[in-house]
Request: fold
Amino acid sequence: MILWHLIESKKRFNDLEKLIPDVSQKMLSQHLRDLEWEGIVDRTVYSAIPPKVEYSLSEYGRTLIPVAEVMCAWGENHNKRKYEESVS
Reply:
């Protein structure tokens, strides 16, 4: 979910929290740190008051966009199939 939302544009932590309401702050923070460590997400800190931090897909992370799009399409087809099975 994090990667999918970062495809569109840079996001701040609070933006991601709102977009992924079922995730706890702790888990979101951990996943962002893991993605940053793997080189998939870039974390940019701006020296402002209050401090501003933005997350974006790294150049390497952007190589995952086609994979995410295929997975999304598969999920949509899967949900459609399950719906059709439930109504028949």
Q: What stands out?
A: Residues 65-87 form the longest helix (23 residues). The mean pLDDT is 93.
